[in-house]
Amino acid sequence: MSEKIVQTAGRAALGEFAPDFAHFNDDVLFGENWNSGEIDLKTRCIITVVALMAQGITDSSLTYHLQNAKAHGVTKQEIAGIITHVAFYAGWPLGWAVFNLAKEVWKEDGSSTQNLSDKEKFQKDIFFPIGEPNDAFAQYFVGQSYLAPVSTEQIVIHNVTFEPGCRNNWHIHHAKSGGGQMLICVGGRGWYQEEGKEAVELTPGRVINIPAEVKHWHGAAADSWMAHLAIGIAGEGTSNEWCEKVSDEEYGKLK
Q1: Count of structural domains, the chain
Q2: DSSP3 helix / strand / coil % (the chain, rounded to 5)
Q3: Residue ranges of the chain with pLDDT lower than 70?
Q4: Residue 111 placed within a domain
């Protein structure tokens, strides 16, 4: 027999002040609608979170439904993908607000980090998965990087994680029209630099818009892991040109 939702919040908060509302909330909305058999509870939780987020609701009611989603099988990776997807339609600042709530709900239960590797500790600090070693592009990086798909439909998004000191080569995103790339730092600290300009520090929440045909590189700081979302911008005749490595000398000048 499937799990049944039992709700008493309406009566607890409004039982005397608004008994009819409490009845509709506890007995009809949750007691009947949530327990009808057409949709499983996990899917209902996801739909509810999306609906509340789309309305800009980021108060305790959304926290409750995020907790409900976690309790009914929505994983940390799944909720990260859901919020990211909805943010493109509902608004990026709203996505950040909901992530702040979700991070608390999916926070690890105070377990010791004493025996964890630096990579495992960093994974606990960021919401998106680190993924697997970025072996396919290893020749274009100094140090170890990791790659994890976040979205593979509509807009392709990957989370790229750099170990301390890791950076990619100078490179150019070519396009006849449109094209380029967007970076959104989601953890740690790092650098982005365009040719002929000073390096820009990457910290969580920093958004970098990279036009096509601009030579640049990005990577972690020497003393910190760094992760960013990488979003390719659609364009005509797009391609990627990898250039020379960022030398230890020029990288060492960054403080």
Answers
A1: 2
A2: 40, 25, 40
A3: 1-5, 9, 108-114
A4: no
